[in-house]
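Usage

Read records sequentially. Each one opens with the input sequence:
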Amino acid sequence: MINKYLLIILLSLVFSSTLVAQEAQNIEDLDFLYNKIKELHAYKDQLKDNKSYQKLYEGLREDLKSSDEFEIYQKLLKLIYPIKDNHLGLWRKPDSTFRLKYLKLEIDTI
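and closes with the structure output:
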């Protein structure tokens, strides 16, 4: 019985430490992106003293607890959307192991 409790405690510690590490990585990515954005001419022209943009950054910084990469990606994009310079974007390298499965239609001919 004690072994079950010990196992549950150990698993919860491992799981919680993984979430904390993921959140720290997400915050590091957000900070890096924000610092790079601040170097852009478009940021300096459009958003340098914008308080709502600063609040957006601070709000995103507190809300990066998810481990879903796509959800974090969408949150990082919120930092880029307000900048209007017609060539700024965020993307990632595609998964080279992904293969499309082609649809084969069954056609009944008489």
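Summary fields computed downstream for this record:
- The chain is about 60% helix and 0% strand.
- Residues 42 and 85 are 6 Å apart (CA to CA).
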